[in-house]
């Protein structure tokens, strides 16, 4: 075994002295020169190597006896390589499996959520919204006491049912809101009182742009509930068509009405006849106590 190991060491030395080995081995009859070189290398290291060992090493180097030659590529070699790397491959496979399971689970959950949402949407269209529309319509029609109020409630009811029939849940919900707002508006009662306070105008007039010789007259009013509190209501200005929620606005009146109120205020600074109209429960519009022309403005 010692001699074998020493011969292998000779081969290893030749491998590291590649230039020398190739030059000497390429020349026939030069083994003696190579042997002497090897002997000097080992003697410099304090080792004594016999001629037989040196000859054996040179012959082994020439025959590549101790040189590893990889096996050619094959299916078995591939399997062996995979088996040798099974730890790393196993970890990679485990991560891939976990990611795939997470992706499948996420998609399954998304599908379940979509299915539940579809069921809820269908239930809203077939059960929830029909009941809400019916209840809101009953409340609005129950409060309506005038023809225009009933017509408005019936129209909103029909619009909500039409939205329901075409599967438009958003429009149907908006119809419920509109019916509820109508019912609330019909329940309201208030009077339109002409403003008569120090430092505030009770009436104004406008000169139209298209006719500088004409004047439009307005009385400034506010909505007062039976308990004395003021209401803010949506009012559309006839000048710009914009609707604003205001607590005070001006109603257009004939000049005769305007002048009568002006005389009422001029005699003692107080407007005794200060109620322009009254909105009763169940009606959409006030009942006017004075002649009016119907338009309104929100700024002056």
UniProtKB/TrEMBL annotation:
This is DUF6384 family protein. Pfam families: DUF6384 (PF19911).
